[in-house]
Amino acid sequence: MKSETSVLISGSGPVGLLLALGLGKAGIDTLLVEKHPNLQPATRACVYMPVVVPILTKLGIFDKIQEEGFFNRVGIVWRDSEGQPLAQLPLDDPKPDQFGGVLQLGQWKLAQIILNEIKKYPNVEVCYGAECVGIQDQPEEEQAKVMINERFTTTETLIKADYVIGADGSNSSVRRMMCIPFEGFSYPWRMIGADVLYDFMSEENLAPLNFIVDPVDWGVIAFTGEEEGGARPGSGKPPLWRIAYIEPAYLTATKEGYMSRAEKRIPECFMKHGSKQFKLLRAEPYVNSQKVAAQGRKGRVLLTGDALHSNNPIGGLGLTGGICDAFAYGNALVRVLKKGESDSLLTDCANSRRNAWLTMTNVLSQGNIKRLYGFDEEGIGAREEFFSRLKVDESFSKDIRGKFDKMLPETFE
């Protein structure tokens, strides 16, 4: 592991990896550390809004993603608890020279594609099993000092870095070490993400991306873009789907408990018409909150992705926003480190990304989730008006698509 670097990134999810890739392509010395021993093979996020397509294209990985992923040109379909359609939001791009649609690809598979591309750049070092455990950032010193613990050898290494990026998730240790408050609220329930082998399209007549509306059994059913064993669509193997739903937080919080409840809940609530012959691969809880860091930059430390902002997963806006973060931060860092522009540009970028979440992503994601479970008078009225406008007003659909683009108001190119 190098002892000095221009940029140290903590966290090897797609956001941290994309940032490292952008810096690698620009020739900037980069060290990425990840506390886990390797990429975590769980689907997690699997839906990305169209705003990410130009980003992935500019970073040179869109062609590979086209090969590995699935592009949903139907958009989002809202359904009742019996699977009957209530409304649809097309998300295809009307411009004939651009791809239109929703990218659906498991988070870990996207991360693997990015990691393979990073290997082309010797100026980027990726170290697994290495955790950031301490940060010293003194204004009078030229660089930040970061203590890295190599978890499987118990070796500790002091790294000097011009900038430190926290891309280590909503429970960010970088954010905590810098004493930056994480402001907002957590939802009162526990959300479960389950990976299931089952053909929801042919068995249940579902679209690739479905939002289920119900006061209790609301959730999301989405195709991950792959089939059993990571095979590409069309291999003939059972397709892999992601189901997100909630359960009371007081239920047993064990792997066995999540799996046993999912085995019963999924066919009862989300398989109404087909054979119900499915295979459950995993069922795991994850954080469900609407929070943002009080500041995106403190000294030489910047926060990105879920370390900067966290929102509910309905609509895939969390990782979509994180990809926008990585692109903007990468461009700003290149301008500062390679072109000699003012360091204040990074503050502008951090503020821009935080404000984009507050004014757009946060609002959109809260609207998405309330539209599924809101059954009081206000919730029903708002949902019915939304669905009615989708059905009769084409400009309304275009306005919604335009809001996704506003998740990246400034690229800092």
From TrEMBL:
Superkingdom classification of source: Eukaryota
Record keywords: FAD, Flavoprotein, Oxidoreductase
Pfam families, sorted: FAD_binding_3
GO MF, one annotated term: FAD binding
Domain FAD-binding: 4-357
Ranges in coiled-coil conformation: none
InterPro entries to which the protein is assigned, alphabetical: FAD-bd, FAD/NAD-bd_sf, PheA/TfdB_FAD_monoxygenase
The protein's name in its UniProt record: FAD-binding domain-containing protein
Species whose genome carries this gene: Scytalidium lignicola (Hyphomycete)
